[in-house]
Design goal:
By secondary structure, the chain is α+β, with helices and mostly antiparallel strands. The chain has one domain: endopeptidase fold (from Nostoc punctiforme), CATH 3.90.1720.10. It contains five helices and six strands. Strand 3 and strand 4 form a beta hairpin. The longest helix is centred in the middle third of the chain and has 12 residues. The protein starts with 9 loop residues before the first strand and ends in a 19-residue tail after the last strand.
């Protein structure tokens, strides 16, 4: 499980063995096909096929299925983190419906997909907090987020990683 996330961290995910994920990567030019934002150290807000959900990041802790990158906005203030978290938890987003077909059509045609794309949703949360993540507010892809000049990659720490210079024994308590 990843345990060094901070509010406002962006997690980009590459899902293996999924034709839809492959299609998104092909059209976006990115290694990643999904974007979400950390709302605390253990949870992310993300737009999925059933709507906007707050899920544990542990859901993606399977190296066989998922590859991911954590991006952190440089010099994000506590006030900005509070605003991001407040907008992420707003009632009109969490649980809202998302139309997968409409999203894919908009994605392929590069049309306005404000509420139908996970990347646009993450970008919108930052815009609401007056943080301009990308210049692509109408059509945002994982590649646009990766290339943002205000983010830096953070190496995620997984529980069980070789943190102290020696391998941790998973069977010992």
């Amino acid at each position: 499980m990843i345990h060094n996330l901070q509010v406002g961290d962006i997690v980009l995910v590459h899902r293996r063995f999924c034709p839809v994920a492959w299609l998104i990567r092909k059209y976006s030019g990115s290694h990643y096909n999904h974007a979400m934002m950390a709302v605390d150290g253990l949870h992310v807000v993300e737009m999925k096929s059933l709507g906007v959900k707050i899920n544990p990041i542990a859901k993606y802790d399977n190296p066989f299925l998922y590859d991911f990158k954590v991006l952190r906005v440089v010099q994000l203030s506590d006030d900005e983190k509070t605003r991001l978290k407040r907008y992420a938890y707003q009632g009109k987003f969490v649980g809202s419906y998302w139309n997968f077909v409409r999203s894919m059509v908009g994605f392929v045609q590069k049309r306005r997909m404000f509420q139908w794309s996970c990347c646009n949703f993450v970008n919108y949360l930052f815009e609401r907090a007056d943080i301009w993540l990308t210049d692509h507010s109408i059509y945002t892809t994982p590649k646009h987020i990766e290339d943002s000049y205000i983010v830096r990659e953070v190496k995620p720490i997984r529980i069980g990683d070789n943190i102290y210079g020696r391998e941790r024994n998973r069977t010992a308590l």
